[in-house]
Specification:
With 388 residues, the protein is α+β, with helices and mostly antiparallel strands. It is 22% helix and 24% strand. The chain is built from 10 helices and 17 strands. The mean pLDDT is 95. Bound molecules: FE2/S2 (inorganic) cluster (FES) and fe (ii) ion.
Length: 388
């Protein structure tokens, strides 16, 4: 039976029935266009791991809010990003998702203007150049790049925010994990037919967990109760000090990590506190583009990129110590298949959510007490959109 709420200050749940975002915020192309300029072209966006660009001349391209970005490593080993657009008449420069630039040059495929890896125009292809044409006036359009613990972020704004802007408790709960030293062991990518906010809302609540994630809810018993924190239960004080994971959180008895059989197979990270080892999972959340889940033996980076008002690309990278990846007995599939299953389940739930939002009667939904992280997400969103 549902409780009417009392006045416990440490209860984490919402105390009023807040409205969700308006239905059209999830499909209207005009809202989407405003999101691109207010959020996706303004904030730091996670692109890839730094070691994905192995040496001078290696590059990646990625589309962020409709803008093609060219990320490369220059001759001095510095990461640089540019709009993937030629300064002559605007052709796309690099057509592949990744590769290596021959002769340390970027050559436009259209009329062969060439640029060095710092983006300076080296040559045009014309027989002559007008007297008032100066090559230094036509470098590639630069994009700000920042590296954080082996992760590369880019910002399309000419005036990038100082902070990488993490939200949920104001920051990073994975400080003690050796993120910078880990290597990607597996990557999974899928385009889901939902608005990007639908995926984030789903990430921010567990009301859906028992039905959508039966396997995960067995592993993390508190999720079976549709909550994330012990303090999401209005009766949490009655269970304070309980060792039962359905009240205190953490993994089910005997499990160590998020994997098919609950077992960790590679080395466990040193340097974690007892509560971090017992937590089962910790998160770093940086809206709008990434969250990182930290477990006792591996980390998982989930990147979210909008592909249209009703299309979102989800990418997950699983990161391990090199020692685990080079051990032939290491059971990567035990970990990767479990995480993939959970993401597929979230993808399907998000698609069903998206379909219902199209109702002309649905002006806005309503948030239940357990959805306080969804409310935080909406507050962040309204702030970023200038809707205070
Ligand atoms: S558009 Fe690139 S050289 Fe002409
Ligand atoms: Fe989920």
């Amino acid at each position: 039976m549902a409780h009417k709420l009392t006045g416990d200050e440490d209860f984490a749940g919402l105390k009023t029935a807040e409205k969700s975002l308006p239905g059209r915020a999830y499909y209207d192309p005009a809202v989407y266009a405003r999101e691109l300029s207010n959020i996706w072209h303004r904030q730091w966006i996670y692109l890839c791991r730094s070691d994905a660009l192995a040496g001078p001349g290696s590059y990646r391209t990625e589309t962020i809010g409709g803008q093609s970005v060219l990320l490369l490593r220059d001759d001095e080993g510095t990461l640089r990003a540019f709009h993937n657009t030629c300064r002559h008449r605007g052709s796309r420069l690099c057509l592949e998702r990744q590769g290596r630039l021959g002769a340390q040059r970027i050559v436009c495929p259209y009329h062969q203007w060439s640029y060095d890896l710092k983006g300076n125009l080296l040559r045009t292809s014309s027989l002559s150049e007008a007297p008032d044409f100066e090559r230094e006036d036509y470098p590639l359009y630069g994009i700000a790049v920042r590296e954080w613990r082996g992760c590369v972020f880019v910002c399309l704004s000419g005036d990038p925010p100082e902070e990488l802007s993490a939200f949920r408790g104001g920051g990073d709960h994975t400080d003690n994990w050796p993120l910078a030293e880990l290597a990607v062991g597996h990557t999974w990518r899928k385009t889901v037919a939902c608005n990007w906010k639908v995926f984030w809302e789903n990430f921010n609540e567990c009301l859906h967990c028992p039905n959508v994630h039966p396997e995960l809810s067995r592993l993390v018993p508190i999720y079976r109760r549709r909550i994330i924190l012990p303090q999401d239960d209005p009766d949490w004080r009655r269970h304070e000090g309980s060792a039962d994971p359905k009240h205190r959180g953490g993994l089910t008895q005997g499990a160590e990590t998020w994997s098919g059989d609950g077992k960790a197979h590679g080395p466990r990270f040193e340097g974690l506190s007892e509560s971090e080892r017992a937590a089962g999972q910790r998160y770093y959340v940086n809206t709008p583009s990434v969250y990182i889940a930290a477990h006792v033996d591996y980390m998982r980076i989930v990147r979210v990129l909008p592909r249209g008002p009703e299309e979102t690309e989800i990418q997950a990278e699983w990161l391990f110590p090199e020692a685990a990846l080079s051990d032939p007995a290491f059971e990567l599939a035990n970990i990767v298949e479990f995480g993939t299953l959970v993401l597929e389940q979230d993808g399907t739930a998000s698609e069903i959510n998206q379909q219902g939002l199209r109702s002309i009667r649905h002006e806005a939904g309503v948030l239940m007490p357990e959805e306080h992280y969804v409310a935080d997400f909406h507050r962040w969103y309204r702030g970023a959109m200038g809707e205070g």
